[in-house]
Design brief:
single chain, about 450 residues, alpha/beta, 2 domains, 10 helices, about 35% strand
Length: about 450
């Protein structure tokens, strides 16, 4: 039997092999960060359910297997027809495609990128803009107490780099597509993304994770987003990993004065999913909105952990996470809001709602407030329940069948999050997926 320690030792050995293939890059500051990260990973190991932050999420399916890191690009077998279903039909955008964590220039479309925008491979940006990258990369997502962030940092090679110059309004969305494709044995990709929006810049990012691999695999992604003063960023994430895929995602955001950040996180696929989101409101009068929707069935586990850190006065945050759980699926929500000492006039609202479509589905919800200031407006709450039978009866009395009535109520519950997304093509795609999921759920329930 493979133990957690066996797997940690295996990754350390894999790192040494990775390091030997870097061809002279081991003396760089970036690699010193990698080395510190793998050392920290070895120290802390994989989390267990004895730790409060992982009490409801057992990562044994990941920690007791050895996933081989993908260190080179292999996209020869993937054509444009393969990625077309994931390009959000009708979406005019700047598109970057990554295969198993590595940038594919052949499958990407960068010609629509306007002046004032740098967008492309992080590996390329490390070579062409080392000073800019060095000021930000791995400065925000903390790997000292997060084993998966440490593992990503140790093996980071490529991902997306987006840099918006001050005052630039990027009208077209930037669509990042991360595809996990068939590879030898079990494999892991470590996409590393860096988004920098300077003062008064405006940009919309759509980040999609898609699973095509038939065998078990792990996507371990880290995204760091930096907002300058008065910058506006919308970040939409769509996760549709394959049924044998595991997804661990870390999003860390830092906001400066009067900046506005919006996150819409949609989780649909994956056998085990953990989304870690942290936003730091690091200057006065900044605003943050976190929205999330999880749709799970069969024996899926989707865990959303969020932290909003109010460090300065006069900041606002709004958070709404919803889950629709069917079959024997499990959901977890742990939302923490910090209000630091001196962060007066904070206005923070947090809500978590779950709809259980099956008696075998379960939800663990833990909203939290930690307040160290006295002039604040903060609320939080959670609700878990089933469809209202009176509402079902009302719709049936208007001539609808029971299935249609339940679908309408479920759709209304979930579409509240979908309708908050500003990218129209993404909203339409999510509407289609939601309706398809409801139909598939009915068929499985009857089997």
């Amino acid at each position: 039997m493979v133990t957690y320690k066996d797997t940690v030792d295996w990754y350390l050995s894999a790192f040494e092999g990775f390091e030997n293939g870097l061809n002279g890059q081991t003396g760089s500051e970036l690699h010193r960060v990698r080395r510190r990260a793998i050392e920290r990973f070895v120290e802390i190991g994989f989390p267990t359910t004895r730790e409060e932050e992982w009490r409801f999420t057992n990562v044994a399916p990941i920690a007791e297997q050895q996933f081989t890191p993908v260190l080179t690009l292999s996209d020869d077998s993937i054509g444009h027809s393969v990625i077309e279903p994931f390009t959000l039909a009708g979406l005019k955008c700047v598109r970057l495609v990554f295969i198993n964590g590595h940038f594919s220039k052949r499958l990407s479309s960068l010609s629509a990128a306007p002046k004032g925008l740098k967008v492309g491979s992080l590996a390329g940006a490390i070579r062409t803009d080392p000073d800019l990258i060095g000021r930000h990369l791995a400065h925000y997502a903390d790997y000292t107490d997060n084993a998966f962030a440490a593992l990503n940092t140790a093996f980071m090679l490529d991902g997306a780099f987006v840099y918006v110059r001050g005052g630039k309004d990027v009208e077209l969305p930037i669509h990042l597509i991360f595809i996990s494709s068939d590879h030898d044995n079990r494999f892991v990709s470590h996409p590393r993304n860096l988004v920098i929006a300077e003062e008064s810049a405006r940009v919309s990012i759509v980040e999609s994770y898609v699973g095509l691999a038939a065998n078990e695999y792990l996507t371990n992604a880290v995204t760091e987003i930096v907002l300058g003063e008065k910058a506006v960023v919308e970040h939409d994430q769509l996760q549709i990993e394959g049924p044998s895929g595991y997804h661990i995602g870390t999003l860390h955001v830092v906001q400066q004065r009067k900046s506005i950040f919006t996150s819409n996180s949609i989780s649909l696929g994956g056998a085990l999913v953990r989304n870690n989101v942290k936003t730091v409101l690091a200057a006065e009068d900044s605003e943050c909105t976190l929205n999330g929707l999880s749709l799970a069935t069969s024996e899926q586990l989707i865990d959303n952990h969020t932290t909003i850190d109010h460090t300065k006065p006069g900041c606002r945050s709004h958070e709404l996470y919803k889950a629709v759980l069917d079959g024997k699926s499990r959901g977890v929500f742990n939302g923490r809001i910090y209000v630091r000492k001196g962060a007066q006039k904070t206005d923070a609202k947090q809500t978590n709602k779950t709809l259980l479509l099956s008696p075998d589905a379960t939800m663990d919800s833990k909203p939290q407030l930690e307040i160290f200031a006295d002039d604040v407006k903060c609320t939080h709450g959670a609700a878990i329940g089933q469809l209202d039978e009176e509402q079902v009866f009302y719709l049936r009395s208007r001539g609808l069948g029971e299935d249609e009535a339940r679908d309408i109520l479920t759709y209304a519950f979930a579409s509240d999050i979908i309708n908050r997304i500003h990218v129209e093509a993404l909203r339409k795609e999510l509407d289609r997926v939601l309706l398809k999921r409801l139909q598939e759920g009915r068929l499985k329930a009857r089997e």
